[in-house]
Amino acid sequence: MIAVTPLEMRVIELLVNNEFSSEGHGFCGYIYHDENNMNVMRGAMASLVKKGIVYDWDTETADNATWGSLTDLVSEPAPGLHSPDPFAEYGFILKNLEVIE
Questions:
Q1: How far is CA 41 from CA 16, 74, 93, in A?
Q2: What is the DSSP letter of 76?
Q3: What single-letter DSSP state applies at residue 32?
Q4: Are 82 and 93 a contacting pair, CB within 8 Å?
Q5: 77-86, long-range: CB within 8 Å, 24+ apart, which pairs?
Q6: Residue 77: beta bridge partners?
Q7: Could you give the CA distance from residue 39 to residue 3 in angstroms, rounded to a whole number?
Q8: Tens of pLDDT along 76-91?
Q9: Rounded-to-integer distance, Cα 55 and Cα 71, Å
Q10: pLDDT of residue 96
Q11: Does residue 75 contact residue 92 with C-beta atoms inside 8 Å?
């Protein structure tokens, strides 16, 4: 299990619940700068890369957003749409994560 902070988990959930995650390529998407306090988020985002949870971040200046995607270390294809995992509808499930306070 990989320990993550509540803030790191919030970043993960932003990727999981992103519209691009429903395209079948894994959990990925934008972190929109105008919707988040980026002074706080950037620290958590860098930590997720260091832990191997996110591949890397790519800033999209035109969209005022940063693109990221979760690695295979923490996500995998869902066994089916009827999986007990609530995110299985996107075709992938989370794994190996533990939120610590």
A1: 16, 19, 23
A2: E
A3: E
A4: no
A5: none
A6: 92
A7: 22
A8: 887 765 556 655 666 7
A9: 6
A10: 95
A11: yes
Answer yes or no: pTM beyond 0.85: yes
| Residue 83 and residue 75 in contact, taking contact as beta carbons nearer than 8 Å | no
Q: Which CATH class is domain 2-99?
A: mainly alpha
Domain ranges of the chain: 2-99
Query: What is the rounded distance in angstroms from the CA atom of residue 82 to the CA atom of residue 47?
Result: 32
* Residue 87 DSSP one-character state: T
Structure tokens belonging to residue 56: 């890397």
Q: Is 27 within 8 Å of 75 (Cβ atoms)? A: yes
The 8-class DSSP code of residue 2 comes to E
Report pLDDT digits (tens) over 6-65.
999 999 999 988 888 777 778 999 999 999 999 999 999 999 999 999 999 998 877 899
Q: Hey, what are 77's tokens? A: 């294809």
Higher pLDDT, 84 or 71: 71
Q: Are 15 and 27 in contact (CB under 8 A)?
A: yes
